[in-house]
Protein 1
Amino acid sequence: MGEVIVVTSGKGGVGKTTTTANLGTGLAKLNKKVVLIDTDIGLRNLDVVMGLENRIVYNLVDVIEGNCKVKQALIRDKKYDSLYLLPAAQTKDKTSVTPDQMKKLTDELKSEFDYVILDCPAGIEQGFKNAIAGADRALVVTTPEVSAVRDADRIIGLLEANEIGKTQLIVNRLRADMVKRGDMMSADDVIDILAVELIGQVPDDENIVVATNNGEPLVGDNSLAGQAYMNICRRVTGEQVPFLDLEAKKGIFSWFKRK
Amino acid sequence: MKLSDIFKKKSSSDVAKDRLKLVLVSDRATCSPEIMQKIRSDIIEVLSKYAEIDMAGIDINITQMDTEDNTGKTVPALYANIPIKNMNHTAK
């Protein structure tokens, strides 16, 4: 039996979709069978971040409404045979799906996949309620800013109220230089405030922009963000992995390593 | 306070932490400062019927306390410390 993981944040633009794409791709690299579900109906984006936007035939709402079978709507990844995407509908809205329908779908999928990962829309309304309905675990993404941390706190409270078994935090877009000079909260500062388990800290890395431009998640490459995401994937599978030193400068050695 | 402290400016990340801690207390209690002020004045109004209150010593706050089942969860709790100067034995 697989695990259903929801990637959520409250605030928009903190990196939920990027995290979902990298988590899915990384777990597939670790030979896990993974399905990603974009639950952001009306504002789908996981398809473009994964580079699969040209292969969409059916979507989540088609599956829920019974217009097609689940298998017909799943898009296989370009690189990994064990990775699939169920895209959101673009022309419907969040009320096209109910929490009960989502739970039924994720329950069905987790009997066949090791991980069912849901990309949650921003906000705390219907879309959020749909995304968390069947979740066994939640990964809350935040950035080290007051607005994002405040929203993360609200989300953590709602996840607790909905009895989601496990909630872990990813602090995204950290800048080691700013943390060092006291102009940015560190991951530890954020943990201190939110009192939740940390599962990853991801540096603000321009390679992420390039990867998104190309529609190819960078997880597992030798960029700092790529390593950070791979570490998160390992931790998700239960492995103990020490946190990256985000201050690791691109010294002369790594310059030589680059092709 | 040391002389060096005067020149040491608080870092912006410390400011952010302090502001967040404050805002989250009221967020978690789902209680805005305006409502808090209303609760405060209502409590004073009611108590004033029965006792003379030391207005300067009043401390009313919403804080977090551990639940009684020891699960480590916290719930919001109203904390009130209201010094009484004198009891009015005839209610007004």
Protein 2
Amino acid sequence: MSVRRQAGVVLANTGLEVKRLYSDRDDRVLFADLCFQLDAGQLVQIAGPNGSGKTSLLRILAGLSSRYEGEVLWQGKSLLKQRHEYLQQLLYIGHGAGIKAVLSPLENLRWSCALRGLNNNDDKILSALEKVGLSGFEEQACHSLSAGQQRRVNLARLFCIPASLWVLDEPFTAIDQRGVTEIERWLSEFVSEGGAVLLTTHHRLSFAHEFKIVTLGEAANV
Amino acid sequence: MSDSGLAKLVVAVLRRDVMASLRRGSEWSNPLVFFVMVCALFPLGIGPQPDRLAELAPGILWVVALLASLLATDSLFRGDFDDATLEQMLLSHQPLYPQVLAKTLAHWLMTGLPLSILSPVLGVLLQLPAKGMLALMVSLLLGTTVLSFIGAIGAALTVGLRKGGLLLSLIVLPLYIPVLIFGSSAVKSAVEGGEYFPQLAMLGVFYLVALALSPLAICGALRISVDQ
């Protein structure tokens, strides 16, 4: 649980605000005039059919894509002006594998942690792997794990990298039913500790707190 | 950020890439096998006359080393792009420059270094006189590093494209040419018993410029490639 406590320290004044966001792809408007707000202790689910621009939106909000017009504010200031501070608070898990298949979960997470300036924290990594149900698989090459287990390795980053904003693209893909319930519990714990979560999923969330759903693909509304 | 933090970052990236490359095998063995095979075929194609081979050897060794390096370049960022670990690098709050530097050096360690170390053996095969060996090895050690850095710029620019192979060669080959000219000329001069230090010094200049500046271009190119 020490992971959680450390995550708690950096939680302060989380607030992501999207103002009049517009993006298109191949002359097709994905969303226009999109406005919503995500504060600390909240969860926002981005919903919408396939191809409605959910992933594009998350990539914009993670700062990976600049194909948009409008404003994205973080703690009241433009994202572009404080990228460094924003990235310190952000943990983005995209729909890609996020791990090297030839390396073991432990090696993958060591590297992920080192990128975030966290060195020599094998204890945390091992406890994170235990939490996602992968104890016993720490040293096994990831390509020999199942798709769901590989996804869990990627999700283990949630517990070894402190952040106050989680941006998750389809976190439930390939995860079994019990795992889904577990992830929902983790999200709810994180939110009740003051974290903010933005996620896309087609799954009907059963979530202890109230949460907002932003639907893309139709007349974008909140 | 403290210097030790940066050093740890570089070491972590270097270790991970070398480890991944060693486990996959084909990434480091393909260019090496290519280098050995093509060099071994030349005596068969040209004929075994020692003086003729010796005359051509510097050029052959350098051109084949260059092509082997080009062969390995495409995979530099491809794997990380496909498994989305490149996104993690871009979304780290730590500077991208040292990460890219470490990645490219790791790539050189797995391709250029073994090739340079093996080159004297192939020099013997191609009847390269003994006095050219040192120049061959040193010029390849310096030169293949420069080739890796130049190649990394091209790889970063084309990694977002589904079929970037040919484009990559077109971008990278013109930039390879100065390295090839000075590299093979150093070996030639050494074989002829002349002064070869100036050419090596020139390669040294390329080396330092590539080491300092190309990561900037690579970082920019990666951001563009991922931004889609």
Protein 3
Amino acid sequence: MPRSITEQIKLAKQENRMALMTHVVMGYPSLEDTRQRVLLMVQAGVDIIELQLPFSDPLADGPIITVANQTAVKNGVTIKQCMDLATELSSQVEIPLQWVGYYNTVFNYGIEKFIKDSRRAGIQAFTFPDLPIDEEPYEHFFELASLAGIPVIQLVSLITPVERLKEINKLAHSYIYCVARFGVTGTDSKMSDEIVSYLQKVRKYVTVPLAVGFGISQPQHIRDLRDSADVVVVGSALLNLSLPELKDQIQTLCAAL
Amino acid sequence: MSKELFFKTQYEPDENGHFGEFGGRYVPELLMPVLIELEQAYKKAIQDESFLADIKKVFKNFVGRPTPLHYANNLSDELGGARIYLKNEGQAHTGAHKINHCVGQALLAKRMGKKRIIAETGAGQHGIAAATVAAKFGFSCTVHMGAVDAKRQAPNVFWMQQLGAEVKIVEHGTKTLKDAVTSALQDWIGDPAESYYLLGSALGPHPYPMMVRDFQSIIGIEVSEQIQEYIGENKKPDYLVACVGGGSNAIGLFNAFLDDPEVHMIGVEAGGRDVTKPGEHATRLANNSKVGVIDGYKSYFLQDDQGNVESTHSISAGLDYAGIGPEHAYLHSVGRVEYTSVSDEEARAAFTKLSRSEGIIPALESAHAVAHALKLAPELSSDKNIVVNISGRGDKDLFIVNEKLNAKINN
């Protein structure tokens, strides 16, 4: 059975390191590949895995993840199949698995049913970047998920004002995801000093651990973040690696934590 | 006494941009501060009389407003029913109504100190209009366009480039408007401080649906004045007909009359080749599509059973979109506006009909509205009148219409 995200981050802390979160797109290039990829990531030492529910119009993702989403959609991957695979994986791994995706997937599936089925599948958290806290009074998604014991992860960015950070912190649980640079997911940018000072600012107003993602691909990126983040997220940079390459790359990244 | 721009109706959104259950701001956190800044800048601008004065000046001197309202006597006589009036937005600078919200947003972007305009385009008319205001008001400009649209609207790509815009061709997904919207949003997410996202229809996250509607409302305001010359002082039109892709020209015509219950309004969607087959049409409201949350707002969207956006088809690129502006979704849900569709074939026939009987070559989008008016007019008595919005002129459709006509001849 998977641990909770809070427990996993604590475990990494006890080992005096950051936690590593990686990402897969469910059904890209196939569900069987996703299964192998997740198990390999676990074996290679990853702490948390984001399982992305494929969606046709992933507006917060860059070209690499967009194409992966659209390929999975084209292959006819269903949310039910994703739930089934998550159930199977949860029975085999100890690290937390969480959903990431777009809110229309949840809305279309039925909010309550989605939460119920995800809970049954052993999912430990949700990240739906296109559902900001401002829509919570209309959707009640945070409320229903938290009643079921599944935290909803929120994102903050370089331009999130302090007042908003405080509001976001009120609903925060497990960790807050800091978008480390402008732009969508991708692999082409450098980590900057600006990001470190940004994380220090966020830390002042946020009481849960900080995860940092978007644009992280190199061990040096990870070393740069050592004093300012609790979790580092590597997504696009791993998406198109073959299984042997993936294992090597994760081990390299883990060594930098 | 006619209305002034920025008037309010009983169908306004709440403070978070929700029109009933539709609309809102379903966007990544990165965009929230930017959208909040935009909303505040807009609210401040519309309180400032000089903003309204600037817009009116540019509308008159640059856009060439008011556009004419023309009595289609030949068509009306031939059909033998209601009198048909054509609001000819094709006469506006750049050839379509899109210039209205481009002017408004460019003047707002200027006030906000932005340097670059980002736009998406389907038919290319919005892209042309965005590139035009960028040139006029001193912005650099990036227009995102799906590869399929770019191919079928090749002249517009050329003209955008002539106007100094960079045209970014979107090669992923269905390569049409929906992918252009996603790509433009991604571009904006990457450069929120310097750039202004000049959205091309009354859709997307709040405040765009409200803002685009407000700038487009000049169409209905003008009609309410111009129609009096034909039907008498303080008289209202009986029917308003407009095509609906995202819905900017339609809401622009309708808005000034929403609080007049005696005015009937009809939005015409793209029936494509077959309204019963997914991927063959773009009728969202007339065909009972599902409510969803896509491209930053909640509305009706054509989706598959997993909630993925379905591909769409229309002879007109501007109507070829899976979603519809949230205010239209709301007006549909409360029964204020009726929504229907016409097929590609009907639109094409109406295109030819209007050209030959009235000497006006409409855009294929607008030809959808004409096609519905051709059906409606004979059912009504001659003391009734219909105002049809000719949202744009048909020059841009030269190749597509010619191709279809050629195919017909060859068959």
